[in-house]
Write a structure and sequence with these properties.
- By secondary structure, the protein is of the alpha+beta class.
- The protein is built from 17 helices and 22 strands.
- A hairpin with a 3-residue loop joins strand 18 and strand 19.
- It is globular, with a radius of gyration of 30 Å.
- The model has no long low-confidence stretch (mean pLDDT 94).
């Protein structure tokens, strides 16, 4: 039908007869001439209907926004005073000779020319929301990223291999989505949280460079950058070192940034997990923000302020500060709001100190806690933090986790409030994560997943002191987002079983859940490692949105529901009986 897309018509087409297919974006009737902006996925072009073209003009009087139409006409230059320099097609227009109304449109339930529609409304009528040029651009960008990644990996010897969607439930950090079996009553498949075990088995089978752009599923609590189903760029290799893998994918990401938004990313610095937590309170630090957490426990261990003194003298606790440049502009109300904010992360409150004259030490600060500190202590704090006039210091005291979480989150919030970002892009690698974490609720759990290899540690050492062991793991972080993460995998049966024992998985449970993996590890398993990127998060960053739903064609809400199709829905009674699932009373 079409000979060219609306958004691709240029001065090079002057004098040509073209056929366009698309939608009416806007209509203007000047009493004689009728103008429309006609839109398709590539952009918009102005079409003019002249009374001299009687049939087309008569038909154009019926046009309204979002009518689906086909137009045939000649490309001509716009008058000089009507050129629109902000539009790629702004120098030309199409003089219509034929018009076909393919389908009329009812009045729209949302405004396609505005961005202030509620998200619920946008998700309810997603097929209309996706017509908006900004949404088209996001999905076009996503498709370009996908194509570039495929080409890069193909050129580097990787094989695109599919793995099953219906697998066996295995613990990978979140709840599985379960699929009941009609043939095997009482048994369930699990939708994959990732292809983790399958890609390891492919390495054991000798396919040393694997990739897959794959759907993954996790039944977990959602937020703006999470979805119950998401897309992973999944990569696994054999006989490659972590440094080699990191270099390979870092080059890939640099190429994506260059081709998509014409940005040359710098080489990625490498930072250990310990350093990231100590300096930024986060394992995915946003290095665009020139604010760091500074330890001051040794300066206040003998001070008169018990809130500082007690954690300063307690193992696995810390007392720390962040210096916010220009932060003295904060009012007491704003400071109190920050105090309430850090309570979300377990902090009991927020101590602060406005700096008027650091040379004057105690006399040069304004702070509710200054009365508990002497001049030398205040002076030492100001010197260590590098505070200057006009700054504010915020303090955290308590357990290592609470101080990291609260000051790390506060660092991000004040940077946003004061626009403290000193660069546009700041990538890095975070490496050497703890192998395990110990929580009161769940006990010892794997920080990544139970198939991650310990770093420089054998099975005996692992079981003797598991909490001192580091994992051979690495995450790629860009602007405070973890865009990809991976690790060296365990390729020895004894080490894998030792990890399972540390996690409290009995031998019987090991066989029941992972017998196939433990068996495979007996047959000449090569050393292997890999990582996975979140395609959705990469697209978020490259399109400038902070909402993952903006870069997915048909996303779910934070309640894991689809407002457009009303999924999930109740199952058919007959189908449920076939699955041997007992029905319960349904909500009205």
């Amino acid at each position: 039908m079409r000979s060219i897309y609306c958004g691709q018509v240029t001065k090079a087409n002057l004098g040509e007869t073209v056929t366009l297919c698309g939608w009416v974006n806007k209509r203007r009737d000047l009493g004689g001439l009728i103008f429309i902006d006609m839109r398709d996925r590539e952009g918009m072009v102005q079409v003019v209907f002249d009374p001299d073209q009687k049939d087309a003009h008569q038909c154009a009087t019926e046009l309204r926004n979002e009518y689906c139409i086909i137009v045939k006409g000649v490309v001509r230059a716009r008058p000089e005073d009507q050129v629109k320099k902000d539009r790629p097609t702004g120098e030309i227009e199409v003089y219509a000779s034929e018009l076909t109304i393919v389908n009329r449109s009812a009045p729209l339930p949302l405004d396609l020319n505005q961005s202030n529609n509620s998200e619920d409304l946008r998700l309810k009528y997603r097929y209309l929301d996706l017509r908006r040029p900004e949404m088209v651009q996001k999905l076009v960008t996503r498709a370009k990223i996908t194509g570039m990644v495929r080409r890069y990996l193909d050129e580097n010897g990787f094989l695109d291999i599919e793995t099953p969607m219906l697998g066996k439930p295995t613990p990978e950090g979140a709840r599985d989505y379960l699929v009941p079996s009609r043939v095997h009553h009482g048994k369930f498949y699990a939708l994959p949280q990732s292809p983790q075990l399958y890609k390891q088995l492919l390495m054991m089978a000798g396919y040393d460079r694997y990739y897959q752009i794959v759907k993954c599923f996790r039944d977990e609590d959602l937020r703006a950058d999470r979805q119950p189903e998401f897309t992973q760029i999944d990569i696994e290799t054999s006989f490659m070192t972590p440094a080699s893998i990191q270099k390979l994918v870092e080059t890939m990401v640099k190429q994506v940034w260059k081709e998509i938004i014409n940005v040359d990313l710098p080489d990625f610095p490498v930072m250990t997990w310990d350093e990231a937590m100590n300096r930024y309170g986060s394992d995915k630090p946003d290095l665009r923000i020139p604010v760091e957490i500074v330890e001051i426990a040794d300066l206040v261990k003998d001070c008169g302020f018990s809130v500082f003194r007690e954690p300063a003298n307690t193992p696995k606790c810390r007392v720390a500060a962040i210096r916010v440049p220009g932060g003295s502009v904060f009012t007491r109300k704003q400071i109190d709001q920050y105090g309430e904010y850090v309570k979300i992360f377990g902090s009991k409150g927020l101590a602060w100190m406005k700096v008027n004259d650091p040379a004057a030490k105690l006399e040069g600060v304004q702070s509710p806690v200054a009365k508990f500190l002497d001049a030398d202590t205040v002076g030492a704090i100001l010197e260590r933090t590098g505070a200057v006039s006009g700054d504010i210091l915020f303090f955290g005291a308590g357990s290592f986790k609470v101080v990291c979480d609260s000051l790390g989150a506060l660092r991000l919030r004040v940077a946003k409030d004061l626009n403290l970002y000193d660069k546009e892009w700041s990538p890095l690698w975070v490496v050497d994560f703890p192998m395990f974490e110990d929580t009161p609720e769940a006990g010892i759990t794997a920080m990544h997943h139970p198939f991650t290899s310990p770093k420089n540690c054998d099975a005996a050492q692992l079981e003797k002191d598991p909490m001192s062991v580091y994992a051979d793991a690495y995450d790629m972080v860009i602007n405070g987002y973890e865009v990809g993460g991976g690790s060296v995998r365990i390729h020895r049966n004894d080490v894998q079983q030792a990890v399972f024992r540390v996690l409290g998985i009995s031998e019987q449970e090991q066989q029941d859940k992972f017998g196939f993996l433990l068996d495979a590890l007996k047959y000449g398993t090569p050393p292997h490692a890999g990582l996975a990127f979140g395609l959705d998060r990469l697209t978020m960053l490259l399109t400038g949105t902070d909402n993952i739903r903006d870069v997915i064609a048909f996303p779910k809400t934070t309640a894991a529901a689809c407002l457009m199709t009303d999924a999930p829905a109740y199952g058919n009674e007959d189908a449920l009986r076939e699955l041997a699932i007992q029905t319960t009373d349904r909500e009205e």
